[in-house]
């Protein structure tokens, strides 16, 4: 199948790096117009900027420097999509960081920064998106817009994540569920993807390597995931094929959460 998002306007937070980068690339290659919203254009893991790759391929994409912990920035990113392209069909929130370790090892500053991006940032982006989407014309399936939050399996399994990050992702689950419940009648679809162990950038830190190896050893497939695995799931949930799926959590983890 091809062009599954043809003509759709998608805003991907954290789209310059990691899972956001993989999702932005996949969406654009399926025909979407992609707004890559991130604090920096260059990927944290190195390599060519996402926008540059898509420009070379002749895909429709723009980069917008955005801090999603800022209310003004979050609203401006959504406004940019509407001003440039007339509507916003899909919001994907992937911007997140995980500072600290166990709760006794986590400073207040690390706690605030982690929850600020992974919870407040998702709230601000989603609120702006819902306000815009609710007033848009609906598609043939009755959907006016789709919101997809990328989460983390640490809310259900002992994965490699800090206490602050695990708490943030649990809060994000509930926020996504409330959007699905409160705004379903407005034509808003909202779901969560929970990735398992996904290799984006190899770490040399012994504790991170050990934690990842433990998680992989518990994964029934016995391998780490690839960013493309998450992007494929995001493509499905963003497409018209998933119009009657809302309030769901899709684990893309090789069976880790079920173990």
Mean pLDDT: 89
- Looking at the structure, the CATH topology is Rossmann fold
Overall form? globular
Uncertain runs are: 154-160
CATH architectural grouping? 3-Layer(aba) Sandwich
Rg measurement, Å: 17 Å
Secondary-structure element pattern, one letter each: EHEHEHEHEHEHHE
Strand residue percentage: 5-15%
Total count of strands:
7
How are the strands ordered across the major sheet?
Answer: 3-2-1-4-5-6-7
Q: Quickly name the level 1 CATH class.
A: Alpha Beta
Largest sheet: 7 strands, parallel
Give the total of domains.
1
Q: Can you give a write-up of this model?
A:
- With 259 residues, the protein is of the alpha/beta class.
- The protein has one domain (9-252): NAD(P)-binding Rossmann-like Domain (Rossmann fold).
- 41% of the residues lie in helices and 15% in strands.
- The chain is built from seven helices and seven strands, in the order βαβαβαβαβαβααβ.
- The protein has helices at residues 18-29, 50-56, 71-85, 108-133, 163-183, 206-218, 227-238, and strands at 9-13, 33-38, 61-65, 90-93, 145-150, 188-195, 249-252.
- A seven-stranded parallel β-sheet has the order 3-2-1-4-5-6-7, sandwiched between helices.
- The protein is globular and about 50 Å long.
- The model is unreliable at 154-160 (pLDDT under 50).
């Amino acid at each position: 199948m091809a062009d599954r998002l043809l003509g759709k306007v998608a805003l991907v937070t954290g789209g310059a790096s990691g899972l956001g980068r993989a999702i932005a690339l996949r969406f654009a290659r399926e025909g979407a117009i992609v707004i890559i919203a991130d604090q920096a254009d260059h990927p944290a893991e190195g390599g060519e900027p996402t926008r540059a790759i898509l420009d070379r391929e002749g895909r429709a994409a723009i980069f917008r420097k955005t801090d999603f912990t800022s209310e003004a920035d979050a609203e401006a990113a959504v406004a940019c999509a509407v001003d440039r392209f007339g509507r916003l069909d899909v919001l994907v929130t992937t911007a997140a960081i995980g500072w600290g370790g166990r709760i006794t090892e986590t400073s207040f500053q690390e706690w605030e920064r982690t929850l600020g991006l992974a919870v407040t940032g998702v709230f601000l982006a989603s609120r702006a998106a819902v306000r815009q989407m609710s007033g848009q014309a609906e598609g043939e399936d009755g959907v006016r817009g789709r919101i997809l939050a990328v989460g983390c399996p640490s809310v259900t399994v002992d994965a490699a994540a800090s206490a602050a990050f695990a708490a943030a992702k649990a809060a994000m689950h509930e926020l996504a569920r409330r959007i699905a419940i409160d705004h379903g009648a407005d034509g808003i679809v909202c779901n969560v993807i929970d990735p398992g162990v996904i290799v984006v950038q190899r770490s040399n830190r012994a504790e991170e390597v050990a934690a990842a190896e433990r998680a992989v050893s518990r994964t029934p497939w016995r391998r780490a995931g690839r960013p493309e695995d998450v992007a494929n799931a995001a493509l499905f949930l963003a497409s018209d094929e998933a119009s009657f799926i809302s309030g769901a959590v899709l684990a893309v983890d090789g069976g880790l959460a079920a173990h």
